[in-house]
Design goal:
The chain is of the alpha+beta class. About 40% of the residues lie in helices and about 20% in strands. The protein is built from 4 helices and 4 strands; from the N terminus they run E-E-H-H-H-H-E-E. It has a 4-stranded mixed β-sheet. A hairpin with an 8-residue loop joins strand 3 (about 90) and strand 4. Helix 1 (about 20-30) packs across helix 4 (about 60-75) and helix 3 (about 35-55) packs across helix 4. It is globular. The two termini are about 25 Å apart.
Amino acid sequence: MRTVCCFIAGVMADFAIPDDRFAEFSRHVPYKVQRAEAELHKARAVLLAFTERDSRTPAGPGEILAACFVWNYFNTHPEDEQHIEGDIIIVDLDGSGETIEYAAIGDVDVVPTAR
């Protein structure tokens, strides 16, 4: 099981990626698409929009696909400065979208606000 989390302006959502869904993603999404930075931005937008909307409802297929993309992008990135090993967190501290950071979940200590 892989996980991508989003933390936006104090609200957090987890996107658990079942192994079978990740295997499907790996088989069917072309390598060039998996490496495309523009696709990373689209996937991030899907996850952040879901987090802002309502983190209490279960993630749908679109969000799980986006999480697969984000997890794969960083865990398989050939450049050391872009490579993140393990589960990923996307952080937008103020919720403006101006400064988005990606990190390994274990490297960030966040405290979500109650909804």
